[in-house]
Amino acid sequence: MTHHLDARRPVAVYTDADDTDITPGVRLLEAAGYEVRVLGTRDAAEIIAGARDAEVLLPGYASITREIIDALPELRIIALMSMGFDYVDIDAAAERGVWVTNVPGAATEEVATHALAILLHAVRQLPFYLASATPGDWNSRADAAPPRLSETTLGIVGLGKIGRELARLAGPLFGRVLGYDPLLPDTAAVRAELDGLGVTRT
């Protein structure tokens, strides 16, 4: 008697990846034996059509609704490429026994660094001084001199991962850092971390 082995490889599908280099992920999945497809869409109908036999779904910004989850009978895991998971119907996934994973801290440093760049751009009046950095306007002065950061108070609303990372980056530059977050627990560990960052909670 001859036994025919099922040679079908499990399927992993990237729905969209607008600003993410998925090459390392594709290589890892293929090395693990997966057939990998990249759909390049956020459209629900196109996702269903292209991922109907997928065990793994990897969305970028596509909303993964109950309609999509219910239409993919082989689906076992939705692997997000972000920290947030508000664009996935978690209840529908749980009802189907589909795991949903995220990447805590995926862009914490990037967002905090960008926030600091915008902050310095505004406080130091860079638009004016960049525009005046020409031979004819070299000695132009703004109506009010930029404040010294060491004499300035920085206020951070939201002390989650990104807010605390911003405090870590910006704290040494500013004279004082105030933080506000009604959702952050007031525990000894949190107080110790904020103290270490030089943040006064308000």
Automatic annotation (TrEMBL):
GO terms for molecular function: NAD binding; oxidoreductase activity, acting on the CH-OH group of donors, NAD or NADP as acceptor. The keyword Cell membrane does not apply. Keywords: NAD, Oxidoreductase. Residues 24-132 form the D-isomer specific 2-hydroxyacid dehydrogenase catalytic domain. InterPro entries: D-iso_2-hydroxyacid_DH_PdxB, D-isomer_2_OHA_DH_cat_dom, D-isomer_DH_CS1, NAD(P)-bd_dom_sf. Belongs to the D-isomer specific 2-hydroxyacid dehydrogenase family. This is Dehydrogenase. The lineage of its organism: Bacteria, Bacillati, Actinomycetota, Actinomycetes, Micrococcales.
